[in-house]
Amino acid sequence: MSGQSAESQLRVSIVIPSYNSAVWLPSTLKSLVNALSKTSWIAEIIVVDDGSTDETTATLSGLESSLVPYSLRIVTQDNQGRFFARWEGIQAARHELVLIMDSRLLVDVNSLLHLDAAFKAGATDRVWNGHVATDPSAPLVGRFWEVPTYTFWGSYLKRPRVTMITLENFDHVPKGTGFLFLEKELFARACLEAWPVENAHLTSDDTKLLRFIAAQTPIRLDPDFSAIYRPRTTVKQFLAHSWSRGTLFVDSYAGTSRVRNLVLVALSILPPVLLALLATTIAMSAWPAVWGLLGGGVLGLLVPLLIAARRGCPIRAQLSYLTFVLPFGVTFWAGLTRGLFVHRRSFRNSTRHIETAQ
Hints:
Keywords: Membrane, Transmembrane, Transmembrane helix. This is Glycosyltransferase family 2 protein. Residues 13-125 form the Glycosyltransferase 2-like domain. The protein is α/β, with parallel strands linked by helices. The chain folds into 2 domains: 6-234, Spore Coat Polysaccharide Biosynthesis Protein SpsA, Chain A (Alpha-Beta Complex), CATH 3.90.550.10; 239-349, no CATH class. 47% of the residues lie in helices and 16% in strands. It has 11 helices and 9 strands. The protein has helices at residues 25-36, 56-61, 82-92, 111-120, 146-157, 184-193, 207-216, 235-253, 258-283, 287-310, 315-342, and strands at residues 11-18, 42-50, 71-77, 97-101, 105-107, 127-134, 163-165, 179-183, 219-229. Strands 1, 2, 3, 4, 5, 6, 7, 8 and 9 form a 9-stranded mixed sheet that branches. The longest helix has 28 residues, at 315-342.
């Protein structure tokens, strides 16, 4: 800790939602404390146990002494999903600045020092979005999502640099709530704007919140404010996550424009239509049409891979995509189709514009 006066030190509450993350939490918290020790922050750590069925509580109890001088508080709730876990965490936070982070992160040792130095130098950015990379040592199945991210956000990922996220470039840069530094009050308003109407497990806990925040103030995406994410390690976990992400994808974009509404509906309808057409052409022995449909399908699957590869996506991630794209496609499509039903009311909001706060 520096000799900076307590009056001028940043006071930060770090909120970590956790569900069955006992195996990850010791290393996550160790990396966090190592990064905090480089700063002059007065910080508290709040872990929200979202109804875990593993040894989360016992694990956390055994870690308290290793976190000194930072206090650890454990908030428990029945399993309600990450949205409400974060909400409970910020309600418990004692400080006006919060760092929201995922329970699977390894915080870069100089990441918080970079943030601390920026504020000491007079930085006025209200919101910082961390640069989060996938653990390169993750199992093959854990590398899959790098191809989609490089496909859509490759211009940034190929050459990471400080980028201000606004509504104008919102869909063209990576972002997330897994490593996010901002004012507690602003995050609370974003939560209220995206408040779940029904099942919080099926409600977006990142894109909708960040879109609201970007409407209030630019979000600084900074490669020196960084962490490593450790993804799911089994095919079963990967497919369950893909199904969930399909539903959340609908909640993230339904109602934001008529064009996006049409795209979401098309993504649900097109696969079964093409399969029916393929079955019909096979039954009719129309082999040129069969091979044309199959070739078009293969090309459609390869296009994202080719784009990602050109933008510098790691080879191992490309191999993961080739290995798991078909089961991913089925589960993501099923989740997306479920999302069209669950979030059907959102499609009525196409003409509603996000209002920026003054």
